[in-house]
Write a structure and sequence with these properties.
This is Eukaryotic translation initiation factor 3 subunit C. One of its GO terms (cellular component) is eukaryotic 43S preinitiation complex. Component of the eukaryotic translation initiation factor 3 (eIF-3) complex. By secondary structure, the chain is mainly α. The chain is built from 37 helices and nine strands. Strands 7-9-8 form a three-stranded antiparallel sheet. It has a two-stranded antiparallel sheet with strand order 1-2. Strands 3-4 form a two-stranded parallel ribbon.
């Protein structure tokens, strides 16, 4: 129970409990402590225990006093106060106090060595190094400190040797402390190597020597400032020098570069690490760097540190640091281009000696620096994408940020040339995957752009490269044609890659071909790739690219006038109602969707930058227009007849059409959907000119190249489909119909009308014949059923189905009664008789798949429009 919660007299209870803890026996002598592990925290605890022991002895002596006498001083206590006052008059100098602190820390380290407690040794060793900074005299450390660190290093080596001979598992704290001391003591002892050597040569003479050393030059005044400020070893005009947080002057010299880099790398990723300070320090290190190796090491560490600023899940890299990273990466590639004997390659061994840089020894051709240029380029590209995602695309800031894509493309191009140079040397093991990755990044930046933009990017990139350097994959003289460039890059990836990279290369080439109206080649590549069968096994980004490519192929088919192919291609994406999600152009908020915050965050990270978007309004307009040109003739053909198998081409379009029919009042069209629905109604009524006017009034066509050609193609398609709809609707009212009449009604050439009618007859869509001599369409009436006959057949089929259902129910209830079977067999025999069979023969004698239209098209508002 804590002494703060005890009842009664606090002083008496406290003194009695402390006496039990600190004294043993009747003589109240202090217990003798055995050797125990001591750390920095135990020291303070011992001091507290000594104070409590002294308090307890005082309280024991005065335990008999009660009441007011406890607060009065007697003769004995006053004498003790006088002696204490005399002792406090003896003041130690600050230097002596620091020496005492140093000796106490050394004693704790020695105590830790006795019991092999490396956890406390590591803590006290850090404390010791902080204390000795204040006792340095002209760069010379106190001899007690030199003795301690020399013996500690020997003890550490001895412990490691024992561990190798007789492996003994250490606990986690000891093992961590041993590793900490091992990492720090070698670097620390290098600063005092001369004194340590003198101590080991003759320790007695070293400790007993009292020779005065030469007085050091007067130290400059010290100005304490943050580690991140302009830290140089030179004195300024006032004689001040920069001092870091540890108390030492920060000396940024070429010899100290690697030590500073090592310190920064060790602190990277730890808590409470000021990354901006580290970046400023490395900028100063790059200024004092002399050799190419130093510059390469500093630049690689600096770029990595800048990337850490954008490591958050929802934050992008600051703009100024991105631009700085781009400049530094470009500088790094320029240095590697000039210094042919220095290469940055994956898998190289780390150089651990911070005192001297590596040299070419043993006939080596290169000084290898471990690192990955392609990883830097990929991260720089990803950070630009994240930045564009976070900016409002309708502002000038987005346009300004988008201009950085040109400089990024130059970096990608220079990195490709560097990897090509490394691949030329057969002695270097450069992974093919690294080259494929950087080529894929180059392809990702050009596949969706027009040829003119790609040509400008390539020209600007080659201007940054010396004239004596060329590419073996994409030669300088072959990049004038964007199509040839895309073909060359994709062909290289087809041959030298597999899996996702190969599939993405094929999708990028298909996208480029479709964008530039090469439909048939794009379609053939899409079909022969068989990606539609295996795309579900790829990653999400590849599936998004597949969806984008599919949509682009559909738009290309529409521009070519292939309405059926366009609608069939776009059906998978546009018919789902999730175009935004499938194309990674936004997240649709659904009413009953169960989307976790993590899933929503991932969806937002996958979004494409705005300049890569496909216009969804244009996509919807193309899809609905194609659906109208296919569905209206189909509705006219089928109508409400039960004899013709109903077929739905676009459920989305059918729902919109039904909704439009249910509206009591329809005003002038306001948006794209309204225009298409009004055009559908006019086309169903045979008013093809009005339908053409509604379609041409859609302003979204201005976004497509060659707008006039698109509108002319649509007018031609509407004329043809209007002719088909008219024939399906009014065929029952004609016995013969002149081709010339149809040509005048729809303003089509007679040859075109004959071709359309012949196609309908050959596909068994129209029960008619074409007399080419008289240019007349002759309709056949024999196989047609009147509306009354169709309704009677429907009623008969429904009645038969109802009887069979009742009989099955009766059979289950009577448990298989004989009468039920007899009744069923009797009726079955009658149904199989001549009347039904004869009627069936009459029905099957004609066109069972497609019935000639006319009287069947009677339902809905469209039927009312036709009849009215």
């Amino acid at each position: 129970m804590s002494r703060f919660f005890r009842g009664g007299d606090d002083s008496s209870s406290e003194s009695s409990s402390d006496e039990e803890e600190l004294y043993s026996g009747d003589e109240a002598e202090p217990k003798v402590a055995k050797d125990v592990a001591v750390d920095s925290d135990d020291e303070s605890e011992e001091e507290d225990e000594e104070e409590e022991a002294s308090d307890s002895s005082d309280s024991d002596a005065g335990a008999q006093k009660k009441g007011l006498s406890r607060f009065l001083l007697d003769q004995e206590s006053s004498e003790e106060e006088n002696s204490d006052a005399e002792e406090t008059t003896k003041v130690k100098s600050a230097k002596d106090k620091r020496h005492d602190e140093l000796d106490a820390t050394i004693a704790l380290i020695l105590n830790g060595q006795k019991i092999n407690d490396w956890g406390s040794i590591a803590n006290e060793f850090d404390k010791l190094n902080r204390q000795v900074v204040k006792l340095l005299d002209g760069g010379k450390a106190p001899k007690a400190y030199i003795k301690c660190i020399a013996e500690l290093e020997d003890f550490m080596n001895e412990t490691q040797a024992k561990q190798k001979v007789t492996p003994k598992k250490m606990n986690a704290t000891n093992a961590r402390g041993l590793n900490t001391v091992k990492q720090r003591i070698k670097k620390n002892n290098k600063d005092y190597q001369a004194q340590i050597d003198a101590f080991r040569k003759n320790s007695d003479d070293f400790m007993e020597s009292d020779e005065e050393e030469e007085k050091p030059a007067p130290k400059p005044k010290v100005r304490f400032q943050d580690f991140a400020l302009d830290a140089t070893a030179e004195e300024d005009d006032e004689g001040f020098a920069t001092v870091g947080k540890g108390g030492r002057a920060l000396l940024f010299t070429p010899e100290s570069i690697f030590k500073h880099l090592r310190t920064i790398l060790e602190s990277r990723g730890k808590k409470n690490t000021d990354r901006l300070e580290q970046i400023k320090v490395m900028e100063k290190l790059f200024e004092v760097a002399v050799t190419p190796y130093q510059k390469i090491r500093v630049l690689m560490t600096l770029v990595s540190a800048r990337f850490d600023l954008g490591s958050g899940a929802a934050t992008s890299m600051p703009l100024e640091h991105w631009k700085a990273s781009e400049r530094e990466l470009s500088t790094l590639l320029q240095i590697l281009e000039k210094e042919k004997d220095h290469i940055v390659i994956e898998g190289a061994e780390e150089w651990e000696d911070d005192d001297k840089p590596p040299t070419l020894e043993g006939g080596a051709k290169y000084i290898k620096v471990p690192g990955s240029i392609v990883s830097f380029i990929e991260r720089l590209d990803d950070e630009l994408t994240r930045s564009l995602q976070a900016i409002d695309p309708h502002t000038s800031e987005y346009i300004e940020r988008l201009t950085d894509e040109g400089s990024l493309y130059n970096i990608i191009f220079q990195g490709l040339l560097y990897y090509e140079m490394l691949r030329k040397d057969a002695t270097l093991e450069v992974p093919q995957d690294s080259l494929n990755r950087i080529i894929q990044r180059r392809l990702d930046h050009i596949y969706f752009k027009p040829s003119q933009v790609i040509k400008i990017l390539e020209e600007n990139s080659w201007k940054q490269v010396p004239s004596n350097i060329d590419s073996s994959i994409t030669p300088r003289n072959e990049t004038n044609d964007a199509g040839q460039l895309i073909n060359t890059v994709c062909s290289y990836l087809f041959e030298n890659s597999e899996g996702i990279i190969r599939a993405r290369a094929m999708l990028c080439q298909i996208y480029f071909l479709a964008l530039h109206d090469d439909y048939y080649r794009a379609r053939d590549m899409m079909l022969t790739s068989h990606l539609q069968e295996s795309i579900a096994n790829f990653d999400i980004n590849s599936q998004i690219l597949y969806n984008r490519t599919l949509v682009q192929v559909g738009l290309c088919a529409f521009r070519k006038g292939l309405v059926y192919d366009a609608q069939n291609t776009l059906q998978e994406i546009c018919g789902s109602g999730r175009q935004k999600e499938l194309l990674a152009q936004g997240v649709m908020i659904q009413r009953y969707s169960q989307v976790t915050p993590e899933q929503e965050r991932l969806e937002k990270q996958r979004q494409l930058p705005f300049h890569m978007h496909i216009n969804l309004e244009l996509l919807e307009c193309v899809y609905l227009t194609c659906s109208m040109l296919l569905e209206i003739p189909l509705l006219a053909q089928t109508g409400s007849s039960p004899d013709v198998k109903k077929r739905v081409i676009s459920k989305t379009y059918r729902r919109m059409l039904e909704y439009h029919e249910r509206q009591i009042f329809t005003g002038p069209p306001e948006n794209t959907r309204d225009h298409v629905m009004q055009a559908s109604k006019a086309l169903a009524a045979g008013e093809w000119k009005k339908a053409t006017h509604f379609i041409h009034s859609i302003k979204i066509w201005e976004l497509m190249p060659d707008t006039d050609d698109i509108k002319a193609m649509l007018a031609k398609q509407i004329q043809e489909e209007g002719l088909r709809t008219y024939l399906f609707t009014y065929a029952p009212f004609y016995d013969t119909l002149a081709v010339e009449t149809l040509s005048g009604m729809f303003e089509l050439d007679s040859r075109k009308v004959s071709a359309v009618v012949s196609k309908m007859i050959s596909h068994e869509e129209l029960a008619a014949a074409l007399d080419q001599v008289t240019e007349t369409v002759i309709f056949r009436k024999g196989v047609e059923l009147s509306r009354l006959q169709s309704l009677a057949l429907t009623l008969s089929d429904k009645a038969s189905a109802l009887i069979e259902t009742n009989e099955r129910t009766l059979e289950q209830r009577t448990q298989g009664s004989t009468n039920a079977f007899n009744r069923k067999d009797g009726r079955g025999g009658q149904r199989g008789g001549g009347q039904r069979g004869g009627r069936g023969g009459a029905r099957t004698g004609g066109n069972t798949q497609r019935q000639a239209g006319g009287t069947q098209f009677t339902g809905g508002a469209l039927g009312a429009a036709v009849r009215g």
